[in-house]
């Protein structure tokens, strides 16, 4: 596909990673564990690539970076909603590979080992304080607000204008469950950092 095709994606975002609550990577600091591994789930509310409508589809990225993600050497794999038609699959794959330009062209330069694209059902719950993202048999994420240690009540803690390239502003939370069983890149980061928000990208 031509990299001159106009495209846009916007929708809801849910993340779980190996960092402590808040995730220092969002502020340009070293990951809590010295490395970064996580799952980032996306639900497209409105999207297109040329004349191909991408609205209503979900996808996810699963990554491991030996240091901070912006330092590169990322190993990653993508899942795209299996309900996508062949043109939709081709369009999303073109965008996520960076071939369509824009935001994902920059992200692709940080990936040293791409495990490819897989197709499976995806589901994101975008209403209420408790959010979920699932790929049956592969990924199960449950995101909840942070628990205030003084009051022992859930509290909405908002992040504004961070360095997060996917979602600069959102709600810092906790991943009460974050299990990834992908055969190429599996891990369990339950009890660690969680984050929800919205994304908007255009290209090329």
**Mean pLDDT across residues:** 96
Low-confidence stretches: none
Percent helix among the residues?
under 10%
Query: Count of helices?
Result: 2
Distance between the termini: 13 Å
The portion of residues forming beta strands comes to over 45%
C-alpha-based Rg, rounded: 16 Å
Structural class: mainly beta
Q: Outline, from the CA principal axes?
A: globular
What is the count of β-strands? 14
Largest sheet: 14 strands, mixed
- What is the element string, with H for helices and E for strands? EEEEEHHEEEEEEEEE
Task: Write down the domain tally.
Answer: 1
Structure description:
This protein has 204 residues and is mainly β. It has one domain. Helix content is 8%, strand content 49%. It is built from 2 helices and 14 strands. Strands 1, 2, 3, 4, 5, 6, 7, 8, 9, 10, 11, 12, 13 and 14 form a 14-stranded mixed β-sheet that branches. The two termini are 13 Å apart. 38% of the residues are buried. The mean pLDDT is 96.
């Amino acid at each position: 596909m031509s990299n001159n095709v106009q495209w846009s994606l916007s929708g809801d975002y849910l993340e779980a990673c190996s960092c402590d609550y808040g995730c220092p990577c969002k502020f340009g600091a070293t990951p809590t564990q010295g490395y970064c591994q996580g799952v980032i789930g996306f639900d497209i509310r409105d999207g297109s690539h040329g004349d191909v409508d991408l609205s209503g589809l979900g996808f996810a990225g699963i990554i491991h970076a030996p240091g901070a993600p912006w330092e590169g050497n990322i190993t990653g794999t993508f899942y795209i909603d299996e309900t996508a038609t062949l043109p939709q699959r081709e369009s999303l794959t073109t965008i996520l590979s960076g071939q369509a330009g824009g935001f994902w062209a920059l992200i692709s330069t940080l990936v040293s080992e791409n495990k490819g694209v897989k197709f499976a059902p995806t589901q994101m719950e975008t209403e209420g304080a408790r959010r979920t993202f699932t790929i049956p048999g592969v990924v199960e994420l449950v995101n909840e607000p942070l628990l205030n240690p003084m009051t022992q009540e859930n509290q909405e803690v908002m992040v504004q204008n961070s360095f997060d390239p996917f979602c600069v502003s959102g709600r810092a939370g906790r991943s009460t469950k974050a299990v990834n069983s992908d055969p190429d890149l599996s891990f369990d980061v339950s009890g660690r950092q969680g984050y929800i928000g919205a994304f908007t990208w255009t290209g090329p």
